[in-house]
Amino acid sequence: MGVVLCAVDPAGGRLILLGKTGPSSYGFAGQIDCGNGSTSVLPTEPGRALVAARLSNRVGIVDLRLGRRIGEIVVGWAPCSLAAVPGTAYVLVCNAGSDAVSVIDTRTARETQRIAVGREPRHVVTAEDGLSAYVSEQGAGTVCRLDLTALHENGSGAVELVWRSMLGRHVQPCLVVPTGGGTAVVLTRRGPRLPLLDLTSGLMLASVALPAAAAVSAGGAVGAVSVGEGFLLVAVERPGLIAVVDLLECTVSRTITLGARPRDITIDPADQTVYCALPWSGRVAVVHLDGVDLSTEDGRPQFESIAAGRAPCSVAVLADSDFDET
Q1: CA 208 to CA 195: how far, in whole Å?
Q2: Where do the H-state alpha helices sit in 34-186?
Q3: pTM higher than 0.90, yes or no?
């Protein structure tokens, strides 16, 4: 059984736990109060998670087994995104209000570094090898790469900037999604195309045209997850759909209707079930991709939605070990 962990909007200030008891069977499993402004959740060690509270300068520490918040870590203002550094005990935090990325040590629950970045950083993601991180600097219209090598050397050295790529303030980059092969797709809040970047140099190699319904002046791409061989699922806010991007062809091969204003999107690797937060309806969309050909518009995936608090804005899949007593 997997458990979907949903972080709700500032009005709710809770994590809603939903237990998965079957392929299409979900039930309410509890809630954890995390304070107003909770926007992002990151499972760390078994039974623990970090929660970014955007209306503060704190990252909360949550004990999933006890069902309560047990501590907090002081970071920059308006933390809005969390990313673990593979191979280390460190987590990166985007501080949108401080124009900085914090490095926190989960062993000591303290901030160890704060790196100045571009205006209004909205999201940070780490490479699989843990040696690089990519930050979307929405207010500046840029994305940057950080060298994390020092964090693998007892954390004694400084994280350094490698490159910064200007995409334009008008596009408002909000998420960098590494796609394998040394490239990444950049999600943007505005504009009809999604840039494809070379992660070594930061240069733009190509771009992916969004469907006409998604190429609007605001309310663009807001979340993405890789699935299968060579496909990327992109949640597009304004038209309320998932655009399936064929990474080999750099085209959108099909769309999947979700509902009003989708936000964060994730996937359960065990069964390829896709979950997407729908804050306007207070639900999480569940999309089953079994037997669906992502390269064409043929066939319709099974779709359902489940209640998840007042306005869930992010969603994560947890393992049974996060709740089992040891």
Answers
A1: 6
A2: none
A3: yes
Give me the phi and psi of 308, to 5 degrees please: -150, 60
pLDDT tens-digit profile of 19-62? 887 777 888 888 898 877 888 899 998 889 999 988 899 999 99
Distance CA(112)–CA(131), nearest Å, equals: 17
How far apart, in whole angstroms, are the C-alpha atoms of residue 75 and residue 158? 17
Q: What's residue 23's pLDDT? A: 75
DSSP 271: T
Contact partners, residue 322, CB within 8 Å, separation at least 6: 3, 43, 46, 47, 49, 64, 65
For residue 208, give Cα distances in angstroms to 142, 184, 205, 232, 315: 18, 12, 11, 11, 26
The secondary structure of residue 232, as a DSSP letter, is E
For domain 75-209, the CATH superfamily is YVTN repeat-like/Quinoprotein amine dehydrogenase (2.130.10.10)
Residue ranges of the domains in the chain?
A: 75-209
Task: Give the Cα separation of 225 and 293 in Å (integer).
Answer: 17
Q: What are the distances in angstroms from CA 252 to CA 198, 214, 247, 259, 321?
A: 20, 11, 9, 19, 37
pLDDT in tens, 188-236: 988 788 999 999 999 999 999 987 655 444 457 778 888 867 899 999 8
Question: 315 pairs with which residues across the strands?
Answer: 6
